[in-house]
Design a protein that fits this description.
The protein is of the alpha/beta class. It has helices at about 15-20, 35-50, 95-105, 110-120, 130-135, 150-160, 170-180, 190-205, 210-215, 230-245, 245-255, 260-280, 300-310, 345-355, 375-385; strands at about 25-30, 55-60, 75-80, 85-90, 280-285, 290, 320-325, 325-330, 360, 365-370. It has 3 domains: about 10-135, inorganic pyrophosphatase (n-terminal core); about 150-225, no CATH class; about 280-385, Diaminopimelate Epimerase, Chain A, domain 1 (Roll). The chain has 15 helices and 10 strands. A hairpin with a 3-residue loop joins β9 and β10 (about 365-370). α6 (about 150-160) packs across α7 (about 170-180) and α10 (about 230-245) packs antiparallel against α11 (about 245-255). The two termini are about 20 Å apart.
Length: about 375
């Protein structure tokens, strides 16, 4: 299976992609099953509507191939590798939502809040230009944490923007908040107390890495705005629904969707992800951190687990999470081969091929399915990786 259509160095400029979209008869948007992928689709769908260009949006999870529609003359792969005849947007170093925002800005006035939510929800640090555009829209930071509009106990227990002692455990979250003796209605000072408690929990966690002290910044002092109260909270919900209910995630990115259902999905997804992080059997190799997920009642959200481990637990730059028949890899920065623009995606595809499976991905993220033991897949990936 192809892992990438063109190198990042050969990727067209935002203005070139925008020019093709503006003159297109029909556009197909193929989004990755991530917060960034669905946010990118929402951003481009909005400006295509304004330009009067018809389009179709699909969310296609890796490693499935995304083939071109017969009546489509422009197909964009958003946060996923491009097949032949497609153009990748955000499959290299740039987050998909940020790259799509740059394209959309050539055609109209895209929503920077959606772009920022997709970027944060995918585990990326937003750039200063995007943050500046959000600020110009009147969106300001406030004390507290970047959670959707739920009570603080829910926020600490279920958020997948942070992993600490209270994550995935509502009782532990309640105990953490009880120790702060907060007022019934949280004012700015109380919200700051919660944020400080989170920062201390991460900094004081002996299992956390130095990378975690930087990752938690996306969860603190949130930007207020979006359909879930904070931009980061919106991104977190997008990330959960993109993995579990991609149709609902797409609706949220387009400005609709059932928010209560989305929050229910978010709670369940976060609980399972944190549980898997805690219970996984881990191993450390040169440049690689491997986690073998323990089977549970629900399917292990390996993508979110890989992101959390990469941000808060892994001492190595690349994380590989394996479960029964599925694996996902995540890089904190560059892939295992910095000369290869496919990076992690290439490694996943080659490892899967060795065991009769299927794999694909981008420079920093890859996913594979396989029909062998997790141990066999780890051995195949290590061989390719090293």
């Amino acid at each position: 299976m192809s892992t990438t259509g063109r190198s990042e160095a050969d990727a067209p400029a935002a203005s070139d992609v925008a020019g093709r979209l503006e003159s297109a008869a029909f556009v197909r948007l193929l989004a990755a099953r991530t917060a960034g992928g669905v946010a990118a689709a929402g951003l481009l769908a909005d400006v295509l509507d304004d330009c009067g260009v018809p389009y179709q949006t699909s969310v296609v999870g890796l490693p499935a191939a995304a083939t071109n529609g017969t009546d489509t003359d422009v197909t964009l792969a958003l946060g996923r590798p491009a097949e032949t005849g497609q153009t990748a947007v955000g499959a290299g170093g740039d987050p998909a939502a940020t790259a799509a925002y740059d394209v959309a800005a050539e055609l109209g006035s895209p929503d920077p809040v959606l772009a920022l939510a997709g970027t944060i929800g995918s585990g990326h640090q937003p750039g200063s230009d995007l943050l500046g555009d959000v600020t110009e829209r009147g969106v300001e930071r406030r004390p507290g944490i970047a959670a959707p509009g739920v009570d603080p106990t829910d926020a600490l227990a279920h958020s997948a923007l942070v992993h600490a002692s209270f994550s995935g455990d509502r009782e532990a979250a309640a105990e953490t908040l009880a120790s702060l003796e907060l007022p019934e209605t949280l004012d700015a000072d109380a919200r700051q107390q919660v944020a400080s408690a989170v920062a201390l929990a991460v900094a004081g966690d002996q299992s956390a890495t130095e990378r975690g002290t930087h990752a938690v910044e996306r969860f603190l002092r949130p930007l207020a705005g979006g359909p879930f109260g904070t931009v980061g909270g919106f991104g977190d919900v997008l990330a959960a629904t993109a993995r579990e209910r991609p149709g609902l995630a797409t609706m949220l990115a387009l400005g609709g969707g059932d928010t209560e259902t989305a929050l229910s999905v978010w709670r369940d997804h976060g609980t399972r992800a944190h549980e898997a992080v805690r219970e996984a059997a881990t191993g450390r190799y040169d440049g690689l951190y491997v986690a073998r997920a323990t089977p549970s009642d629900g399917a292990t959200p390996v993508g979110t687990v890989a992101r959390l481990l990469c941000a808060y637990r892994s001492p190595e730059p690349v994380v590989l999470v394996v479960a029964d028949g599925v694996a996902e890899a995540r890089a904190a920065g560059v892939g295992p081969d910095t000369t290869d623009p496919a990076g992690i995606g290439r490694a996943m595809a080659e490892a899967a091929a060795q065991v009769g499976g299927d794999g694909a991905g981008t420079a920093t993220r890859g996913r594979a399915t396989y029909d062998c033991s997790p141990t066999e897949f780890v051995a195949a990936f290590r061989e390719v990786f090293q």
